[in-house]
Design brief:
The chain contains five helices and 17 strands. By secondary structure, the protein is of the alpha+beta class. Strand 2 (about 50-55), helix 2 and strand 3 form a beta-alpha-beta unit.
């Protein structure tokens, strides 16, 4: 099946029939029981051969599923059997093929993290939510920020700093008081975490084409860890972050409940 056009956007309903559906579930009893009932009604196939993947669980398991299938670009339709469920649709056993046929697709590009540690080791990972730098010990981190080869902040003293995707702007970024960004904006929030100096700096909105470099100052005295979704690298000295447009994740949502609508609605909640 062809990947829907347009970066960081939601397309019209697919209106296609998925003959090969893989059903995956988190380890919880609720999700596993739901999977057994769905498999009994609609069958199941291996994710390698699937035209669509139905994911049962919460947002964490949805992220795991998207990460495992980034190379395939297979659309993933989540049904909430967890707690938060921001990336999930409401659970129902009925009319699954029709729900998939009518679904809207949100096309996401992850961030790629290129981290170098104190020992010179190089680690790479991708993130669909955010790449964050976090202090490891009691002292605040000192971090220099360069954007597209130009130093924008000589020294940020903080608990940490993060770069978020638009889809991830309602996650850790929002908790750190960063801005919520619509999918179609092609912007990446750069958000400090408990900034001490400059005390009033609230971060920046960068174009999705930006290449961000974080350099850890006084790294031996003030060690810093870098985290890309599920991957943590400790004792980093520099971390480069940019959008990886060669990779896509396709998430399916019920009509009128798409990711763009959810991101807008989130801005009007107390």
């Amino acid at each position: 099946m062809d990947t829907p056009p347009g970066p960081m956007a939601e397309a019209a309903p697919l209106l296609v029939t998925f003959d090969r559906i893989a059903i995956v579930a988190s380890p919880t009893t609720l999700a596993q029981d739901a999977r057994a009932r769905l498999v009994a009604r609609y069958g199941d196939c291996d994710t390698d051969a699937a035209e669509a993947i139905v994911c049962l669980g919460g947002d964490g398991f949805m992220l795991e599923t998207l990460h495992r299938n980034l190379g395939r670009q297979t659309p993933v339709y989540g049904m909430n059997c967890g707690s938060v469920g921001f990336l999930m649709n409401a659970f129902s056993e009925d009319d699954l093929p029709m729900r998939l046929a009518r679904a809207q697709v949100a096309v996401l590009h992850p961030l790629r993290m290129h981290a170098i540690t104190e020992t010179g080791r190089v680690e790479e990972a991708v993130a669909l939510n955010e790449v964050s730098l976090l202090r490891q010990l009691r002292q605040a981190a000192k971090i220099r920020i360069t954007v597209d080869g130009r130093v924008r902040l000589q020294e940020l003293i903080c608990d940490g700093v993060l770069v978020s995707t638009p889809a991830g702007s309602t996650a850790y970024n929002l908790s750190a008081h960063g801005p919520i960004v619509p999918l179609s904006a092609n912007l990446l929030p750069l958000t400090p975490i408990s900034a001490f100096r400059p005390r009033r700096w609230r971060g920046a909105l960068l174009p999705s084409s930006a290449e961000v470099l974080f350099e850890v100052l006084e790294s031996e005295k003030r060690p810093v860890a870098a985290v890309a979704d599920f991957t943590e690298v400790r004792d980093v000295v520099s971390v480069a972050v940019s959008e990886d447009r060669a990779l896509t994740a396709n998430i399916l949502f019920d009509p009128d409940q798409g990711l763009s609508e959810r991101i807008i609605a989130e801005q009007f909640t107390a």
